[in-house]
Design brief:
8 helices, alpha/beta, 271 residues, binds fructose -6-phosphate, 7-stranded parallel beta sheet, single chain, 3-stranded antiparallel beta sheet, Rossmann fold
Protein backbone atom coordinates (compact mmCIF):
# COMPACT_ATOMS: atom_id res chain seq x y z
CA UNK A 1 0.00 0.00 0.00
CA UNK A 2 1.45 3.35 -1.01
CA UNK A 3 0.59 6.07 1.53
CA UNK A 4 0.91 9.63 0.23
CA UNK A 5 0.33 12.46 2.73
CA UNK A 6 0.00 15.98 1.35
CA UNK A 7 0.17 19.21 3.29
CA UNK A 8 -3.03 20.49 1.75
CA UNK A 9 -6.33 19.09 0.59
CA UNK A 10 -5.79 20.76 -2.78
CA UNK A 11 -2.54 18.88 -3.40
CA UNK A 12 -4.19 15.60 -2.39
CA UNK A 13 -7.06 16.26 -4.80
CA UNK A 14 -4.70 17.15 -7.65
CA UNK A 15 -2.75 13.95 -7.00
CA UNK A 16 -5.89 11.80 -7.05
CA UNK A 17 -7.33 13.48 -10.14
CA UNK A 18 -3.92 13.31 -11.81
CA UNK A 19 -3.81 9.56 -11.32
CA UNK A 20 -7.03 9.25 -13.33
CA UNK A 21 -5.75 11.61 -16.01
CA UNK A 22 -2.53 9.61 -16.35
CA UNK A 23 -4.45 6.34 -16.55
CA UNK A 24 -6.53 7.67 -19.47
CA UNK A 25 -3.56 9.27 -21.18
CA UNK A 26 -1.83 5.87 -21.14
CA UNK A 27 -4.96 3.96 -22.10
CA UNK A 28 -7.91 6.05 -23.33
CA UNK A 29 -10.26 3.04 -23.33
CA UNK A 30 -9.66 2.28 -19.64
CA UNK A 31 -12.35 0.92 -17.36
CA UNK A 32 -12.71 3.25 -14.36
CA UNK A 33 -14.52 2.64 -11.09
CA UNK A 34 -15.96 5.85 -9.66
CA UNK A 35 -17.22 7.05 -6.28
CA UNK A 36 -19.61 9.75 -5.08
CA UNK A 37 -19.65 11.84 -1.90
CA UNK A 38 -18.35 15.14 -0.63
CA UNK A 39 -14.68 14.08 -0.90
CA UNK A 40 -15.12 13.55 -4.62
CA UNK A 41 -16.65 16.94 -5.45
CA UNK A 42 -13.28 18.66 -6.04
CA UNK A 43 -11.93 15.59 -7.86
CA UNK A 44 -14.68 15.81 -10.47
CA UNK A 45 -14.26 19.58 -10.68
CA UNK A 46 -10.56 18.97 -11.38
CA UNK A 47 -11.28 16.31 -13.99
CA UNK A 48 -13.79 18.54 -15.76
CA UNK A 49 -11.23 21.35 -15.82
CA UNK A 50 -8.54 19.00 -17.15
CA UNK A 51 -10.86 17.65 -19.85
CA UNK A 52 -11.95 21.13 -20.96
CA UNK A 53 -8.30 22.08 -21.07
CA UNK A 54 -7.67 19.18 -23.49
CA UNK A 55 -5.44 17.24 -21.07
CA UNK A 56 -7.70 14.20 -20.97
CA UNK A 57 -10.78 12.73 -22.68
CA UNK A 58 -13.35 10.38 -21.17
CA UNK A 59 -15.36 9.46 -24.26
CA UNK A 60 -13.49 6.19 -24.87
CA UNK A 61 -13.53 5.13 -21.21
CA UNK A 62 -16.06 2.87 -19.54
CA UNK A 63 -17.05 3.96 -16.04
CA UNK A 64 -18.78 1.98 -13.32
CA UNK A 65 -19.89 3.63 -10.11
CA UNK A 66 -19.50 1.84 -6.81
CA UNK A 67 -23.03 2.09 -5.53
CA UNK A 68 -26.59 3.39 -5.66
CA UNK A 69 -29.40 3.70 -3.12
CA UNK A 70 -32.10 1.05 -3.40
CA UNK A 71 -35.56 2.42 -4.16
CA UNK A 72 -34.27 5.73 -5.50
CA UNK A 73 -34.93 6.25 -9.24
CA UNK A 74 -32.04 7.51 -11.39
CA UNK A 75 -33.59 10.94 -11.98
CA UNK A 76 -34.24 11.55 -8.26
CA UNK A 77 -32.11 14.46 -6.99
CA UNK A 78 -30.65 12.29 -4.17
CA UNK A 79 -29.70 9.38 -6.41
CA UNK A 80 -26.05 8.75 -7.06
CA UNK A 81 -26.81 8.80 -10.77
CA UNK A 82 -28.06 12.35 -10.35
CA UNK A 83 -24.90 13.18 -8.39
CA UNK A 84 -22.70 11.81 -11.17
CA UNK A 85 -24.64 13.60 -13.89
CA UNK A 86 -24.55 16.95 -12.15
CA UNK A 87 -20.97 16.72 -10.87
CA UNK A 88 -19.34 15.10 -13.87
CA UNK A 89 -21.04 13.34 -16.78
CA UNK A 90 -23.29 16.12 -18.01
CA UNK A 91 -20.59 18.78 -17.71
CA UNK A 92 -18.58 16.86 -20.31
CA UNK A 93 -21.60 15.69 -22.34
CA UNK A 94 -20.44 12.13 -21.86
CA UNK A 95 -22.55 9.70 -23.86
CA UNK A 96 -24.66 7.22 -21.85
CA UNK A 97 -22.67 4.29 -23.22
CA UNK A 98 -19.58 5.46 -21.29
CA UNK A 99 -21.00 5.17 -17.76
CA UNK A 100 -23.12 2.92 -15.59
CA UNK A 101 -24.56 2.83 -12.10
CA UNK A 102 -26.73 0.12 -10.58
CA UNK A 103 -30.44 0.90 -11.08
CA UNK A 104 -31.73 1.85 -7.64
CA UNK A 105 -35.32 1.33 -8.74
CA UNK A 106 -34.77 -2.11 -10.28
CA UNK A 107 -37.73 -4.38 -9.46
CA UNK A 108 -35.32 -7.07 -8.23
CA UNK A 109 -32.34 -5.31 -6.60
CA UNK A 110 -30.49 -8.59 -5.93
CA UNK A 111 -30.71 -9.54 -9.62
CA UNK A 112 -29.63 -6.02 -10.59
CA UNK A 113 -26.58 -6.36 -8.35
CA UNK A 114 -25.65 -9.69 -9.90
CA UNK A 115 -26.07 -8.29 -13.42
CA UNK A 116 -23.93 -5.27 -12.51
CA UNK A 117 -21.10 -7.51 -11.33
CA UNK A 118 -21.35 -9.44 -14.62
CA UNK A 119 -21.21 -6.20 -16.64
CA UNK A 120 -17.96 -5.22 -14.91
CA UNK A 121 -16.47 -8.60 -15.78
CA UNK A 122 -17.68 -8.31 -19.41
CA UNK A 123 -15.93 -4.94 -19.65
CA UNK A 124 -12.70 -6.68 -18.72
CA UNK A 125 -12.57 -5.63 -15.06
CA UNK A 126 -11.68 -2.27 -13.56
CA UNK A 127 -8.31 -0.71 -14.36
CA UNK A 128 -8.49 2.07 -11.78
CA UNK A 129 -10.98 2.17 -8.91
CA UNK A 130 -11.49 5.52 -7.18
CA UNK A 131 -12.62 5.20 -3.55
CA UNK A 132 -13.57 7.36 -0.61
CA UNK A 133 -13.87 6.06 2.95
CA UNK A 134 -16.71 6.34 5.44
CA UNK A 135 -16.04 7.44 9.01
CA UNK A 136 -16.88 3.87 10.02
CA UNK A 137 -14.34 2.43 7.58
CA UNK A 138 -16.70 1.53 4.76
CA UNK A 139 -15.65 1.51 1.11
CA UNK A 140 -18.45 1.63 -1.41
CA UNK A 141 -21.31 0.78 0.94
CA UNK A 142 -19.51 -2.22 2.40
CA UNK A 143 -20.34 -1.55 6.00
CA UNK A 144 -18.49 -3.05 8.98
CA UNK A 145 -19.06 -6.83 9.06
CA UNK A 146 -19.10 -7.05 5.24
CA UNK A 147 -17.52 -10.21 3.94
CA UNK A 148 -14.06 -9.57 2.56
CA UNK A 149 -14.95 -11.83 -0.35
CA UNK A 150 -18.25 -10.11 -1.12
CA UNK A 151 -19.41 -9.27 -4.65
CA UNK A 152 -21.91 -6.65 -5.80
CA UNK A 153 -25.04 -7.05 -3.70
CA UNK A 154 -27.63 -5.26 -1.56
CA UNK A 155 -26.33 -4.01 1.79
CA UNK A 156 -28.16 -2.45 4.72
CA UNK A 157 -26.67 0.91 5.61
CA UNK A 158 -25.18 1.46 9.04
CA UNK A 159 -26.84 4.03 11.26
CA UNK A 160 -23.65 6.13 11.22
CA UNK A 161 -23.61 6.15 7.40
CA UNK A 162 -27.25 7.24 7.24
CA UNK A 163 -26.54 9.99 9.77
CA UNK A 164 -23.43 11.12 7.86
CA UNK A 165 -25.33 11.19 4.55
CA UNK A 166 -28.37 12.95 5.99
CA UNK A 167 -26.63 16.22 5.04
CA UNK A 168 -27.39 15.45 1.38
CA UNK A 169 -31.12 15.01 2.12
CA UNK A 170 -33.81 17.51 3.01
CA UNK A 171 -35.26 17.70 6.54
CA UNK A 172 -38.43 15.86 5.44
CA UNK A 173 -36.62 13.22 3.41
CA UNK A 174 -35.74 9.76 4.69
CA UNK A 175 -32.20 8.52 4.00
CA UNK A 176 -32.54 5.13 2.26
CA UNK A 177 -31.82 2.09 4.40
CA UNK A 178 -30.23 -0.12 1.72
CA UNK A 179 -27.94 0.26 -1.28
CA UNK A 180 -26.55 -1.83 -4.10
CA UNK A 181 -22.77 -1.77 -3.75
CA UNK A 182 -19.79 -3.39 -5.40
CA UNK A 183 -18.41 -5.95 -2.98
CA UNK A 184 -15.01 -5.93 -1.33
CA UNK A 185 -13.78 -8.70 -3.61
CA UNK A 186 -15.04 -6.70 -6.60
CA UNK A 187 -12.95 -3.77 -5.41
CA UNK A 188 -9.92 -5.98 -4.71
CA UNK A 189 -10.13 -7.27 -8.29
CA UNK A 190 -9.42 -3.79 -9.65
CA UNK A 191 -5.95 -3.47 -11.12
CA UNK A 192 -5.30 -0.27 -9.13
CA UNK A 193 -7.26 1.00 -6.14
CA UNK A 194 -6.95 4.72 -5.38
CA UNK A 195 -8.46 5.91 -2.11
CA UNK A 196 -8.73 9.62 -1.30
CA UNK A 197 -9.50 10.79 2.24
CA UNK A 198 -9.49 14.38 3.47
CA UNK A 199 -10.47 15.96 6.75
CA UNK A 200 -10.17 15.04 10.43
CA UNK A 201 -13.48 13.16 10.47
CA UNK A 202 -11.77 10.37 8.52
CA UNK A 203 -8.61 10.14 10.65
CA UNK A 204 -9.63 7.17 12.81
CA UNK A 205 -10.98 5.18 9.87
CA UNK A 206 -7.82 5.92 7.87
CA UNK A 207 -5.60 4.70 10.72
CA UNK A 208 -7.65 1.51 11.05
CA UNK A 209 -7.48 0.96 7.28
CA UNK A 210 -3.71 1.36 6.99
CA UNK A 211 -2.36 0.21 10.35
CA UNK A 212 -5.10 -1.88 11.90
CA UNK A 213 -5.66 -5.57 11.41
CA UNK A 214 -7.30 -6.74 8.19
CA UNK A 215 -10.80 -7.12 9.49
CA UNK A 216 -14.44 -6.83 8.49
CA UNK A 217 -14.67 -4.37 11.41
CA UNK A 218 -12.97 -1.88 9.08
CA UNK A 219 -13.84 -2.96 5.53
CA UNK A 220 -11.29 -0.56 4.02
CA UNK A 221 -8.52 -2.55 5.75
CA UNK A 222 -9.06 -5.16 3.01
CA UNK A 223 -7.04 -2.80 0.80
CA UNK A 224 -3.96 -4.09 2.68
CA UNK A 225 -4.48 -7.20 0.57
CA UNK A 226 -4.67 -5.27 -2.71
CA UNK A 227 -1.73 -5.78 -5.04
CA UNK A 228 -1.67 -2.10 -6.07
CA UNK A 229 -3.35 0.30 -3.68
CA UNK A 230 -2.57 4.01 -3.34
CA UNK A 231 -3.95 6.01 -0.41
CA UNK A 232 -3.94 9.78 -0.86
CA UNK A 233 -4.43 11.85 2.30
CA UNK A 234 -4.28 15.39 3.53
CA UNK A 235 -2.73 16.26 6.90
CA UNK A 236 -6.05 16.13 8.74
CA UNK A 237 -6.98 12.67 7.52
CA UNK A 238 -3.46 11.43 8.37
CA UNK A 239 -3.38 12.74 11.94
CA UNK A 240 -4.03 9.42 13.73
CA UNK A 241 -1.37 7.40 11.86
CA UNK A 242 1.25 5.97 14.22
CA UNK A 243 3.81 5.31 11.50
CA UNK A 244 3.57 8.83 10.10
CA UNK A 245 7.36 9.38 10.23
CA UNK A 246 7.85 6.35 8.05
CA UNK A 247 5.39 7.49 5.36
CA UNK A 248 7.00 10.94 5.36
CA UNK A 249 10.44 9.40 4.98
CA UNK A 250 9.39 7.29 2.02
CA UNK A 251 7.31 10.01 0.30
CA UNK A 252 7.96 13.49 1.77
CA UNK A 253 4.86 15.65 1.25
CA UNK A 254 3.36 12.83 -0.77
CA UNK A 255 6.07 13.04 -3.44
CA UNK A 256 6.70 9.77 -5.22
CA UNK A 257 8.06 11.27 -8.43
CA UNK A 258 4.65 10.90 -10.03
CA UNK A 259 2.94 14.13 -9.03
CA UNK A 260 1.12 15.07 -12.23
CA UNK A 261 2.12 18.22 -14.03
CA UNK A 262 -1.57 19.04 -14.16
CA UNK A 263 -2.75 22.60 -13.97
CA UNK A 264 -6.25 22.91 -12.66
CA UNK A 265 -7.81 26.34 -12.93
CA UNK A 266 -9.09 27.39 -9.50
CA UNK A 267 -7.34 24.50 -7.76
CA UNK A 268 -3.67 25.34 -7.87
CA UNK A 269 -1.56 23.22 -5.54
CA UNK A 270 -0.47 25.36 -2.60
CA UNK A 271 3.21 25.79 -1.95
C1 LIG B 1 -19.91 6.66 -2.38
C2 LIG B 1 -19.10 5.70 -1.61
C3 LIG B 1 -18.81 5.95 -0.17
C4 LIG B 1 -18.12 7.29 0.10
C5 LIG B 1 -17.90 7.49 1.59
C6 LIG B 1 -17.30 8.83 1.89
O1 LIG B 1 -20.02 6.25 -3.72
O2 LIG B 1 -18.70 4.74 -2.15
O3 LIG B 1 -17.99 4.92 0.31
O4 LIG B 1 -16.90 7.35 -0.58
O5 LIG B 1 -19.12 7.36 2.26
O6 LIG B 1 -18.23 9.83 1.61
P1 LIG B 1 -17.86 11.38 1.78
O7 LIG B 1 -16.83 11.67 0.74
O8 LIG B 1 -19.16 12.09 1.49
O9 LIG B 1 -17.37 11.56 3.15
Amino acid sequence: MKVLIFRSRERAVVRAAGEIVQQLQARPASVLGLATGGTMDPVYAALIAAARDGQVAFDRATMFNLDEYVGVPPDHPRSYEHYMRTHFFDALNLPDRTWRLPRGDAPDPAAEAEAYEARIAEAGGIDLQLLGIGANGHIGFNEPSSSLSSRTRVKTLHRRTRDDNARFFGPDEVVPTTAITMGIATILDSRHALLLATGAAKAQAVAAMIEGPVSARCPASALQLHRHATVVLDEDAAQALELRDYYDTVHPDGEDGQMPAMRIPGLEPQA
